[in-house]
Write a structure and sequence with these properties.
The chain is mainly α and 468 residues long. Helix 2 runs antiparallel to helix 17, helix 3 packs antiparallel against helix 7 and helix 13 packs antiparallel against helix 14.
């Protein structure tokens, strides 16, 4: 049974973590493209390097946190306590210009992405482990899930704070000041979590790690991890899942990084006031979580397999309907479409812990393990899926620049109405066909997933599994 203070501490961690992660993902592409004017070659170079590190650090940190006894890995709580200031500083780094030359801006993005993702992954893994170890009781986990979801919803309003404080990045100095305040508040929340989020496993883990040298533990766990990872890749359901999840991350990265840029060209300020558009940006960060909370009974009724498949059908039908029947003329309908599609993408992604849990259970039964290898399943999934976070913006930037976006944003004031209309047409096709093509691929791949036990969903909906 987890204490009330530990529950509050975990919720504080969820709020502080979401405050920074949601804002970083929403703004870093726009800041580097539109304010720092990063060259496309440097942008792609940074994304490629980021993609490689983003993929390998999850399994690396999973092995490190579970099998070493350093100051940062001795307990989940201490890891959060000591790395919280570093996470806050890594969040601030993109918003501090390091120079105007192409080399300086490019290296700025490389270093900022590396530092941020290092701390994001390290604390994110600790958060997942902390949820599991605070309580094994299903009812307690259900309460913890509900409370932490509310905390995350509050934390995601950091986008709204930054939007209204900076007038949608029109006042970058105000944006920087607001970012510093958010980082400080987030750090305090994570400090509280690192101080009070005690679990029953802290002493046990310390004693276990103290009994062996770090080298012995690391060597044995590394060999064990890669052997189990190879076993996972031999399972058809796991391969089907990671392919589906890869394209889901591809979709989410598209909306997360380019929504503000697309709206600048497609949403007319004559129809939609700037403050309403700022409110819309804030809603995109919470709509998925709200949709998931409200749609939980439907997931229980139809099962996660069919619920996820319906989302892929929506991508195809919604995108084609928007392009063929509605068109780009009505800014309000266009914003509604983007809000719904982004909400479905995020809510569906949040359901992916269910098939991952089934895969872990199936692996446990097949190899007669003493317990599910959940951390290995999560780390291996991230190894394949996380490159989508870099590949998606690289592809979109390449498409936009192919049609003249890089030139147009530099000459925005003097650009002709014809040039702006042509770019708007390209962007409209992108928001319609990008989700539709991804949905078509996912629908075909996901149909080969064969674990469809509804009894599992029932257990999960009672709070026995937490989304990573």
């Amino acid at each position: 049974m987890s204490s009330k203070k530990a529950v509050i501490a975990y919720c504080a961690l969820s709020m502080g973590f979401t405050m920074l992660s949601s804002s970083f993902n929403f703004y870093y592409v726009k800041v580097f493209l539109n304010l720092y004017n990063i060259e496309e070659s440097w942008f792609h170079t940074a994304q490629i390097l980021y993609m490689v590190w983003n993929a390998v650090n999850d399994p690396l940190f999973a092995v490190c946190q579970d099998n070493t006894n350093f100051l940062l890995t001795r307990t989940r709580r201490e890891g959060i306590l000591y790395t919280a200031p570093l996470f806050a500083l890594s969040f601030l780094m993109p918003w501090i210009p390091m120079g105007k030359s192409p080399w300086a801006v490019g290296m700025h993005l490389v270093v900022a992405l590396f530092l941020y993702d290092t701390m994001f992954t390290f604390i994110g893994l600790l958060s997942c482990c902390l949820f599991t170890e605070l309580s094994a009781d299903p009812h307690n986990r259900l309460k913890l899930t509900r409370y932490s979801t509310i905390a995350s919803l509050i934390g995601s309003q950091s986008i709204l704070v930054l939007e209204f404080a900076s007038d949608s990045l029109q006042n970058f100095r105000a944006f920087q000041s607001a970012a510093v305040i958010l980082a400080f508040c987030s750090c305090l929340l994570m400090f509280y979590a690192g101080t009070h989020a005690h679990t029953q496993y802290e002493n046990t883990e310390s004693d276990k790690c103290a009994g062996s040298s770090d080298k012995e533990i690391s060597d044995s766990s590394s060999e064990s991890f890669f052997r189990k990872m190879f076993q996972l890749f031999k399972e058809k359901n796991f391969v089907v899942f990671i392919i589906t999840n890869f394209f889901q991350q591809f979709h989410r990265a598209f909306w997360g990084g380019f929504l503000a840029i697309l709206c600048e060209y497609l949403v007319s300020t004559d129809q939609v006031p700037l403050n309403v558009r700022s409110l819309f940006y804030g809603l995109t960060g919470t709509a998925g979580e709200i949709l998931l909370i409200l749609g939980t009974p439907l997931v229980g009724q139809f099962g996660y397999f069919h619920t996820i498949r319906y989302n892929f059908v929506w991508k195809i039908v919604g995108g084609l309907t928007m392009y063929l029947l509605i068109g780009p003329g009505n800014s309000w309908i266009l914003m509604l479409y983007m809000l719904i599609d982004g909400a479905f993408a995020n809510a569906t992604f949040s359901c992916f812990n269910m098939p991952l849990s089934d895969i872990a259970d199936a692996d446990k039964a097949k190899y007669d393990r003493r317990q599910p290898i959940s951390s290995t399943v999560f780390g291996t999934n991230a190894l394949v899926v996380k490159p989508a976070l870099s590949l998606s913006p690289m592809l979109v930037v390449a498409i936009l620049n192919h049609y003249g976006y890089e030139h147009l944003k530099e000459q925005k004031e003097s650009a002709s109405a014809t040039e702006k209309a042509a770019m708007s047409a390209v962007m409209f096709q992108l928001i319609c066909f990008f989700p539709a093509v991804l949905g078509f691929i996912q629908l075909i791949v996901w149909s080969r997933f064969t674990i469809r036990r509804k009894i599992t969903e029932t257990v999960i909906l009672k709070g026995t599994v937490h989304s990573s």
